[in-house]
Amino acid sequence: MRRILILGSTGSIGRNTIRVIESLPERFQVVGLSAYSDTQTLLRQVDSLRPRYICLVDESSARRAKKSLSSSCYVFSGQKGLIDLIHKSKADTVVLAISGSSALLPLLEVIASRKTVILANKEALVIAGAIIMREIKKRQIRILPVDSEQSAIWQCLEGKNRGQIRKIYLTASGGPFKGYNYRQLKNISVQDVLSHPCWRMGRRITVDSATLMNKGLEIIEAMWLFDLELSQIEVIIHPEAIVHSMVEFHDGIILAQLSITDMRIPIQYALTYPQHLKNTLRPLNFFKLKNIHFQRPNVRMFPCLRLAISAAKQGGTMPCVLNAADEIVVGAFLNNRINFTDIPRVIASVMESHKSISDPSLDEILHTDNWARVRTEEIIRGY
Fold this sequence. Notes:
By secondary structure, this protein is an alpha/beta fold. Helices cover 48% and strands 15% of the residues.
């Protein structure tokens, strides 16, 4: 029985991870959970899973949780409490589902403790991929990806010679606004954006999917996960979201991973790797599918993808600036402070203000992340 720690258990990936674990109770024991401030959801999860340790990063939320729990469950708090949870829980596998760049330091701590990492966060690799992969090789552990696209690539590459890869095709549904013109995009509401046609996800990733920024971040993530050059990765719009990604080899053979759109599938594979165990999800029905389509992304209407590719080319601290600016502008859009079409404009302005540092240290990355957030807010206030 594997001992599982879920960091970010109240988010979409965390909740789906728990659903998978509950469907396979003889295989997993949840020894710890963490959330930022969602006390209500976390307490429900504690009632169901009975972990020995939990952490609420928000101090006031942690105090509320302590009043509701028996002494058999220890409550950590704050960022230090998150690090303590990683060590005290004695987990052998950590599902890292914390969103955004705040996952970076916990991820490095998990790697340092030589635990298996099931990674459902792309931002850490985007902003500090060189440092993370260096530590992974040093500790000789594996990162098992959960993102449906990265999981698909991982499965297609299993047992293959990576030196024989010609190209990776990252598929994207294209979001709900394929074919829109600029005037239509400018008038899009928050509710319009949050109505994704294929996936049910967190608010930020849903906005990023609509702008195609999510696919740009996945390009950078894939470069680090699979040791690829930028020229080896191509984004393809695939509205049906059935082909989750493809790998083309030098001899022209292309392998693809197909399944229905349900995050429990890549989560279960990461948890049970290398086994493909039964689940209760409906199988893919090709006769109902009838057709699948592929097309090029429109980077003129959705320039966030172009900005991410530019950041990947520049390297150094520029991907960190890209991600930090995106986190702030998405929050501003969700709070109706800016329009949908302002998102790429603000990010581009922040990137233009930054002189990239090549091969940055961890301190330089953290400093850059903070600078980019401050700079983004300054630009937004000018709108």
